[in-house]
Model the fold of this input.
Amino acid sequence: MATYYIKTNRVFTALRKYGWIFTVLVALGGTFVEPKLGLAVIGIMAGLIGTSFFKGRYWCGNICPHGSLFDSLIHPISLNKNIPKVLKSKPMIIGFFLFFMYNFGGNTLNALEHWGDASFWNRLGMVFSRTYLMVFVVGGLLGLVKNPRTWCQFCPMGTLEKVSYGVGTKLNANKNTDKKLTIESKDKCHACGKCARVCPFQLEPYTNFSENNQFDDINCIRCGTCVENCPAGILSFENERNALELKLNSDLEGYEDRQKILAALTDIQDLGENIKEFTFEFTSPKSVAYKAGQFILVKLKDSESMYRAYSIASYNENNKSLRVIIKKVPGGYGTENIFNQFAVGDSVELEGPMGEELVVDKDAKKVLFVGNGIGMTPFIPLTKDTLKHRKDIKEVAFVHGQRKEKDFYYHDYFLNLAKEYDQFNYLPIASRPENSTTSKGYVMDGIKDLDLTGYHIYMCGSPRMITDTMNLLLEKGVPKDRIFYESEEKVKEGEEKGNIRKQKKTA
Ligand SMILES: Cc1cc2nc3c(=O)[nH]c(=O)nc-3n(C[C@H](O)[C@H](O)[C@H](O)COP(=O)(O)OP(=O)(O)OC[C@H]3O[C@@H](n4cnc5c(N)ncnc54)[C@H](O)[C@@H]3O)c2cc1C
Ligand code: SF4
Ligand code: SF4
Done:
């Protein structure tokens, strides 16, 4: 059964990975061994109030030792359920803040009465250590049975941060330092909801970006989990001025024809285990122009605002229809919805066409296409379109990687193209072939001996394949500006050799 919220890594720095050690040291060490350890919390409180004045709840997502505990230790074993609304409500936040301050303030005053005594610092340290222990126990338990960041919804320190941030904003003191979550362009958003599904605070950025493309929710802890997971790679943290610049300079080539489309689902074909091909005929508008290499968004059923991106698998004959090939992902929220609820005759909302990464450049003279797994899909139209319409392109090759022979759907289609067009070289390669006549290996093995001088290269598939192939291509001396890719998931920039970049066309 697919669940909405996704458990994904939230720990991106050493501070976030190991900050919990401080929590354990102060909560347990301070309460049971050396009370003075608790005095370190005074620095924590000063730090979070000061940071939030300039950067909102940045502390919670990046520095807080309890946050580290929740994300590093609790998250992997948490039930990761919905955070109860009541715990996010204003009465809860204000009520708990007053209750906490009453107790904490009372205990601190009691300790202050012993000012000058030998026991004073121990007494004061114990107030902080016990408070830390209480958060450790209550926050930890809530994190296990609900969601790791449940405590943070009403944490009194979070409330203090919001007050401090409000003052900083009122005084206009954080205009440059306040880096909010920013979307480069709403037109490039896939509306996939992944930013909301991975958010530790269960916020919904993608439906709430402001006019200037920023996410103004005061509870955003600027943790970057959504930035890391956005498949479109369009999220970052920017101050107001940079957000505006990003918006104005966003390259919208390939996204300018995006529109809402109503379509009838006219055919569903089984192509293999958990792989289906869906044919849509446009009903409103009746005609939609799209280019080989673009993708389309398919709206999920019973969902107000969630779509999934699919490469267009059909060669556009007449602007009347399109096909997509979808692989069912185990535990996948969207593909479970599509495989279980979509039926021939349904009216389905699409949005697009979108994308330009795989659209073949005007100045390309030789082209290599590389696709593995479900990532072979865009090359169905791309090969045909290039061979049919780009007479200036003298060599076209397609390295098609799958696991076994039965996974090479559209195999005959590519073989026929190779028969019809002398300039087309079709290179299927299987990692686990079942008969000895099939080339064995990964796509890199199919590429390593090719002479790629003068080639433009277009890749689609798993992030691992793209990263490895990119490294190989760079080693072979292919210039970076001739390598283009698209992936079902975000490919980590700078991974491996530190030279991976999402390539943008320069037109
Ligand atoms: C430009 C583009 C083109 C694409 N083209 C195609 C295409 O042609 N064909 C195709 O099949 N796909 C394509 N995709 C991928 C597609 O958009 C979807 O991402 C895919 O169908 C999976 O969607 P889902 O909702 O079923 O999976 P999701 O629910 O979003 O799951 C995504 C991943 O997270 C994991 N996950 C889900 N829930 C949890 C959880 N609770 N805890 C831990 N992990 C979890 C899943 O196992 C999976 O690995 C494309 C993507 C992009 C960006
Ligand atoms: S919106 Fe993004 S940055 Fe903000 S808390 Fe959620 S995941 Fe973190
Ligand atoms: S593409 Fe998906 S993850 Fe990225 S901003 Fe849009 S909805 Fe969020």
